[in-house]
Design a protein that fits this description.
546 residues; alpha/beta; FAD/NAD(P)-binding domain; 5-stranded antiparallel beta sheet; 29 strands; globular
């Protein structure tokens, strides 16, 4: 059996090596357009910044090592330019000498990945991208001793990682993001610490303004202002590299991605596709979605090898679990965010907490912000976000695992998680999210979100700050009445009639106050996440600065 694989990174190479472990007698040919295979593309920004100083550390395998260990026929600088599905063969151009040959196949696996978006901005040809080793070499070559300024177009994961690494190299960096925030998977109140950290580290963060033109030494923005730019990098997103599939008449789906079934087979029974180029199934609603992440690409590569070898297996739905580190800050997500739930018209509950990374009495605890989104009818976990320092990664991973296991939000309270004071708390932050979800499910807690607060107050509710007088004087939500929670039982008569909203720093004292008031016959809601969540939100900016 002859298997031809197009693309030698992530999904393609996972498929090739798994196939060899399952099918010793198969002929396996890997055709890669670039000059390198099996490289660590997620490490590219860190090589640009010098954090990963050795270029060869990114090269996990070579054609020679893959031939020696796996008996694979790996050909770099070989581009598949056409597929003849009826004849079951591909046309291959050798980019080194320009010659063209055909290769027949019994099974064809497409793993072409995704290509960077390059919008029709005047001067866009000057912008560098960061997709492969060749792109990395070009960017490093451009960072000559005289280069002092950089403009990064786009505030996605790669753009942020590149910004950090260019700052590490001593450049003055500007990030231009056409929307109101970087990191689109985060909700507005969660991304605030990211914006703050970028500006603290000297980055000129330009939000809500687009790039109008890229000149030889500067970039002109849509508001008419300019930014100096010795180099320009485009990080606007990616699109599926599906032109080859389209030319072969294969069915395409959302965003131009290649349509595959749950065994990675395309509309042609002899052609399979994996990785960033294919349409995935969303775990939340079963819809089509594009998720260009390495974990999924590698998992699909392994799966398609099993399928070709005759083994059982089906593709899993995706939750787009992702993480980024930025100047010591960590941001991670899984599942849907609130913006997407609102756009889809789905009902949800939001829960915000601000726990420490480990027990507060043990030195070195770092604060984080966690957000859990829950289906109010089924208690299913719809998504989660985390921003902070140490410990964010494991909390999001635990929640992603709970989602895969179909645990409800309330069942997070029952998880038995490893505890010692330097690693966590006896009530882990994940358990605490479960406790809150349980209270909301059982009607023991009712909350107001930061985005709802102004409307609730305009409708006549009284806002009560149950923090200490010192905390209140240091900064409070405008219009709040201050009655510390420890004094609340003796001062109930001071509260006006009507509905109440209580808040504290992070929500815990607010919950205590709400229980006191509810059992005193008052209609009361707690501001979810407390003052810290509100202060990080656009609502705070509007209230304090107009």
């Amino acid at each position: 059996m002859k298997i031809v694989i197009v693309g030698g990174v992530a999904g393609g190479m996972s498929a090739a090596t798994r196939l060899r472990r399952l099918m010793e007698d198969a002929e396996i040919v890997v055709l890669e357009r670039s000059g390198y295979v099996s490289f660590a593309n997620c490490g590219l920004p860190y090589h640009v910044g010098g954090v990963i100083d050795r270029r060869d550390a990114l090269l996990l395998q070579t054609p020679e090592s893959l031939s020696a260990r796996f008996a694979l026929d790996v050909r770099v600088r070989h581009e598949v330019v056409a597929i003849d599905a009826s004849a079951r063969q591909v046309e291959v151009r050798n980019l080194s000498d320009g010659t063209t040959v055909t290769e027949r196949y019994d099974a064809l696996v497409l793993s072409p990945g995704a290509r960077p978006v390059r919008p029709p901005i005047p001067g866009i040809e000057r912008a560098l991208t960061l997709r492969d080793i060749e792109d990395t070499d070009k960017m490093i070559a451009a960072l000559t001793p005289g280069v002092q300024t950089a403009v990064i177009v786009g505030g996605g994961f790669i753009g942020l990682e590149l910004a950090e690494n260019l700052v590490h190299r001593g450049l003055k960096v500007t990030i231009v993001e056409a929307t109101d925030q970087v990191m689109a998977p985060l909700d507005p109140e969660m991304v605030g610490p990211i914006h703050q950290r970028l500006r603290e580290r000297g980055i000129d963060l330009v939000l809500g303004i687009a790039v109008a033109e890229i000149g030889p030494e500067s970039v002109t923005l849509s508001d008419g202002s300019t930014r100096p730019a010795d180099i320009v990098a485009a990080s606007i997103g990616v699109r599926p590299e599906s032109g080859l599939a389209q030319g072969a008449g294969l069915a395409l789906g959302a965003g131009g991605g290649i349509l595959v079934d749950d065994r990675m087979r395309t509309s042609d029974p002899y052609i399979y596709a994996v990785g960033d180029a294919v349409v995935k199934r969303d775990a939340a609603d079963g819809g089509d979605v594009l998720v260009p992440l390495a974990n999924t690409a590698n998992r699909q590569g392994r799966l398609v090898a099993d399928v070709i070898a005759g083994r059982a297996g089906t593709d899993r739905p995706v939750r787009a679990t992702a993480i980024v580190g930025l100047f010591g800050l960590v941001a991670a997500t899984t599942g849907w965010n609130e913006k997407r739930l609102r756009a889809a018209g789905r009902a949800y509950r939001a829960i915000h907490t601000h726990p420490g990374s480990h027990a507060g009495y043990f030195p070195g605890a770092e604060s984080m912000a966690l957000k859990l989104l829950v289906d109010p009818a089924t208690d299913a976990i719809l998504g989660a976000q985390g921003v902070g320092g140490e410990g964010v990664d494991k909390r999001i991973d635990v929640i992603a695992t709970a989602m895969a296991g179909r645990l409800t939000a309330s069942q997070l309270a029952d998880l038995e998680l490893a505890y010692a004071p330097q690693f966590g708390s006896a009530k882990d932050p994940v358990n605490m999210l479960g406790f809150i979800a349980e209270n909301m499910r059982d009607g023991l807690a009712d909350t107001v979100q930061w985005s709802q607060l102004s409307d609730v107050l305009a409708a006549g509710a009284t806002l009560v700050d149950v923090r200490s007088r010192k905390e209140h004087s240091a900064g409070a939500i405008p219009g709040a009445v201050n009655i510390p929670v420890d004094e609340l039982r003796g001062r109930l008569h001071e509260l006006p009639a009507g509905s109440l909203v209580v808040y504290c720093r992070v929500g815990q004292r607010g919950h205590v106050a709400a229980r006191i008031l509810a059992q005193s016959g008052r209609e009361v809601r707690n501001l979810d996440g407390g003052f810290r969540t509100w202060a990080a939100s656009p609502a705070a900016t509007a209230a304090l600065f107009g």
